[in-house]
Amino acid sequence: xxxxxxxxxxxxxxxxxxxxxxxxxxxxxxxxxxxxxxxxxxxxxxxxxxxxxxxxxxxxxxxxxxxxxxxxxxxxxxxxxxxxxxxxxxxxxxxxxxxxxxxxxxxxxxxxxxxxxxxxxxxxxxxxxx
Length: 130
Fold this sequence. Notes:
2 strands; mainly alpha; single chain
């Protein structure tokens, strides 16, 4: 009987401490402890910055400097160019390609690079002729 009285007397003090700590009954685990809040990594500054940078949008770097959004670089004169880029691809097509590329996620960009580039073997001394 004496232990029951002590438990009843201690209960209001525990409830007050829980209120001060912000522990609600819903955060209490079934085993008596307090469950941890799940981390939301997508809301971290580092993650937000990374997503904005990879999508080509305006973002602030770690030094809090405003970085401009990605934009198309003006074409050089292609008179002597063997590929004749300016005649084969119009400005509108360039803009569409640019926008589509920067809307891709990181895995999409890796896939794009792997499909549009050739792997070449690195030359070594044994490859060259003596």
